[in-house]
Amino acid sequence: MALKEFFRPFLSNLLDSVLQQSLEDDVITPEESVLLSQIEIDVRAFEKEIAKQIEAEGGLSKNLDTISFKNRLIDSVRKLALKDGTISRDEEAIISKLEEYFNNQSISQ
């Protein structure tokens, strides 16, 4: 399945999902903003990884490690949230939304 057909909507919906979670209380805190920025950076890096594979191999292969991406993203966000020693309720809500999104969506080819 091509990037355009699956991964772009999947990744875009992922970003929308965590943004909506952040806006649930009508306020995006500075901590939430940092997490959202990191999530976007990680998602864009994964998009580039996918694009490179499509260019190099003419399509997506079974070697695309989507489980590793999910784990790296959640670990990265959790570590960033813990940087101040505490994960706030808002930060935990974003992390939970990420986990929920991945659990409810299939990212395998």
Give the class from helix and strand content and strand pairing. Answer: mainly alpha
Total beta strand runs: 0
| Distance between the ends | 7 Å
**Overall number of domains:** 1
Strand content: under 5%
The total count of helices amounts to 4
Order of helices and strands: HHHH
Question: What's the gyration radius in Å?
Answer: 15 Å
Mean pLDDT rating: 85
Oligomer: single chain
Low-confidence stretches: none
Helix content: over 70%
Largest sheet: none
Envelope shape: elongated
Kindly describe this structure:
The structure is a single chain. The protein has 109 residues and is an all-alpha fold. It has one domain (3-104). The chain is 73% helix and 0% strand. It contains four helices and no strands. It has helices spanning 3-22, 30-57, 66-81, 89-104. Helix 1 (3-22) packs antiparallel against helix 4 (89-104) and helix 3 (66-81) packs antiparallel against helix 4. The longest helix has 28 residues, at 30-57. The chain is elongated and about 45 Å long. It starts with a helix and ends in a 5-residue tail after the last helix. The model has no long low-confidence stretch (mean pLDDT 85).
